[in-house]
């Protein structure tokens, strides 16, 4: 395979590692298989090196995007599942894992406040969950008539995750049939504006069919007013899908579950266990208020070579409830974690994220020149270095330099956001291994970087 260019050894303390040109060239070449077998220890060393490039999203000082601080128990569950390699599509072929998946989904639905008619299945993540859900929404509300479908209107907010637009595009909803509802000062969908827009579309002869609410926006952690939105959707026979990829995990915290009680209004929910329930990537779920709605969209006649596996509706096959036929047992890592950790410990781990974001907000509020853009909400806080009287464009540059400074110095990964149209800094603090001292040290480093890159005259000391 060739020697790897000199580099510091991978370390748990390294938050981000970027390849130099020589290392990037090696990475590309490493993808090609050799003609003869290589010693397994050499292959493992190369694999470790490949894994080391990029962000260490499980690091206690990685605060960007939505971190994925997977628990060691999830690692073990994932490894065991891969070793056994069970098939999760058919109950007959994967009796154990399919039975556990169905029962686990029923329990999750109960935590979300859904009725006993609820059901669903595990998917790779919220993108697939949302795509699956809005296919069902389209079929249930608009039916098969193309003329009716062409009039179908979907409603999202200006804070809705971009994966929802992608899903709408995939199922053939044109951009002109998507309404973007403004959010309020708390970054929540404005229910009055939603109702007004729906009525306008109805008067114009269109058919509203879908509203996508959010439980824990990626930008600020905001939760849309799902009770009010639910009243509107029920009034007009519109499907309510809730993107709870991030915030849905709070339903598993007895301390904070009341914050997400509005999930009970949903017709479908997308959720990621690999976010705030500490699983390895690829552990998401879609849950339906009425499981039979998914069955009507996805069940097709069984292939002749699979008829022996079809046991009828008393023993439903999960491949009939979604897009995938080949299905890994994604849920088993979560099952492993729930069994090994218990709900009391999981509540503590989730609650830790709330505490850390509030601590970051308090520490920042003590400093001169710093402004909180969105208060600590669901483990997320947005802030900006903005001394009085300074022009916004200049401070946009300064805040960008602050972010880069911390990353370059391997202090923390805090990326920028434009939540209110200006560059701000955002921390998502859901890693339960992050300490109070981590937060205090990082806030101190933020202020040091601000003083380095800001002068009242507007001069930036380091080159742009």
Care to describe what's here?
It contains 14 helices and 13 strands. With 464 residues, it is an alpha/beta fold. Among the domains are: 18-54, no CATH class; 87-328, Type I PLP-dependent aspartate aminotransferase-like (Major domain) (Aspartate Aminotransferase, domain 2, 3-Layer(aba) Sandwich). Strands 3-9-8-7-6-4-5 form a seven-stranded mixed beta sheet, sandwiched between helices. A four-stranded antiparallel beta sheet has the order 10-11-13-12. Strand 4, helix 7 and strand 5 form a beta-alpha-beta unit. Mean pLDDT is 92; it is low at 1-12 and 459-464. Its cofactor is pyridoxal 5'-phosphate. Belongs to the group II decarboxylase family. Pfam families: Pyridoxal_deC (PF00282). The modification N6-(pyridoxal phosphate)lysine is found at residue 275.
Q: Number of helical segments?
A: 14
Q: Class of the domain at 87-328, according to the CATH hierarchy?
A: Alpha Beta
**Structural class per helix/strand content?**
alpha/beta
The biggest sheet amounts to:
7 strands, mixed
SSE order: EHHEHHEHHEHEHEHEEHEHHEEHEEH
Please name the CATH architecture of the domain at 87-328.
3-Layer(aba) Sandwich
Q: Determine the CATH topology of the domain at 87-328.
A: Aspartate Aminotransferase, domain 2
What is the chains' assembly state? single chain
Q: Globular, elongated, flat, extended or rod-shaped: what is the shape?
A: globular
CATH superfamily of the domain at 87-328: Type I PLP-dependent aspartate aminotransferase-like (Major domain)
End-to-end Cα distance, whole Å, is: 38 Å
- Strand order of the main beta sheet, please? 3-9-8-7-6-4-5
The tally of strands reads 13
What low-confidence regions span 5 or more consecutive residues with pLDDT below 50? 1-12, 459-464
Strand percentage lies at 5-15%
Helix percent reads: 40-55%
Structural Rg: 24 Å
Overall mean pLDDT stands at 92
